[in-house]
Amino acid sequence: MAAMQRRIFGLENEYGLISSSAGGRVNLSVESALGYLFEKVVSRQRGTNDFLRNGARLYQDTGCHPEYATPECDNALDLTIHDKAGERIIEEFPLLHLEGYRGSRPVRVGNAAAQHRQHDIFGEMVLALSPLFLDQRFQKEQSASTLQLLERLARKAIAVVGTPDAGIWEYRREWTPQTFSTLMCWAAADRMSRVAARHHPDTVQAL
User: Fold this and answer.
1) Over 70: is that where the pLDDT of 17 sits?
2) How many angstroms separate the CA atoms of 30 and 156, rounded?
3) Which of 68, 178, 199, 58 lies closest to 133, judged by CA?
4) How many domains in the chain?
5) Exposed site from 26, 98, 186, 187, fewest CB < 10 Å?
6) What is the dihedral angle through the alpha carbons of 42, 44, 46, 48, rounded to the nearest 10 degrees?
7) Based on the domain organization, do 66 and 124 belong to the same domain?
8) Is pLDDT at 190 greater than 70 in this prediction?
């Protein structure tokens, strides 16, 4: 069997732009949003196509949306690093000269919610997956790995219940314990205890 030849590869990620006020009224055109995103690039070279310091390319693609292309790499680790760097470049930033609905500030481009701590997700995951082990209609879909995942999620919910997080409203101020997050953590433990009673009885007391 011939050895695999060394390959060069890269990734391209397309990003969407959304601008709306409460009620869904659009108050910033796509062209204006792109103008703010590429403001430094345009001022430097009068175009929306720029090669970055890491060799990646940031540009406005056909269809008026920003796109980030990694530099070409010859291993998966470098490719992943450059791909994550692109996420940081496109991530949320404020437009201090604009105001939002009824004067609210700051107006932000992007969304940093992926970096928020939201404990309700553990309960939501357990509630979504637990029917696989509680409903006979899904009996053929059951697996040991999914059961282990459910148990890990439930234990994580128990570990973080009552601790501060951003909550479902993604609060940006100092985080505090959120009622809904606490409720969902309780739901994770409760639902997993039912699953464990049927499929893993020795863990019921821990839940």
Assistant:
1) no
2) 41
3) 199
4) 2
5) 26
6) -40
7) no
8) yes
- State which residues form the domain around 125: 116-203
Token pair in block for residue 44:
């430097």
Please check whether residues 106 and 125 belong to one and the same domain: no
Bridge-partner residues for 59, per DSSP?
Answer: 49, 67
What's the one-letter identity of residue 128?
A
Q: Annotated catalytic, 120? A: no
Provide φ and ψ at 107, rounded to 5°. Answer: -80, 135
Please state, in angstroms and rounded to a whole number, the distance separating the CA atoms of residues 157 and 166: 15
The CA distance from 183 to 187, in Å, is 6
pLDDT digits (tens, 9 = 90+) for 112-146: 666 678 999 999 999 999 999 999 999 899 999 99
Rg (CA), the chain: 23
Q: Which helix (H) or strand (E) holds 90?
A: helix 76-90
Rounded CA separation 34/163 (Å): 39
Tokens representing 11 are 């990734």
State the average pLDDT over residues 164-175.
Answer: 83
| Same domain for 137 and 199 | yes
DSSP3 helix / strand / coil % (the chain, rounded to 5): 45, 15, 40
Burial class (CB in 10 A: 0-12, 13-18, 19+), 119: buried
Of 91, 113, 135, which residue sits at a domain end? 113
Alpha-carbon gap, residue 199 to 207, rounded angstroms: 14
47 belongs to a structural domain: yes
Q: Which residue among 61, 74, 83, 202 is the active-site one?
A: 61
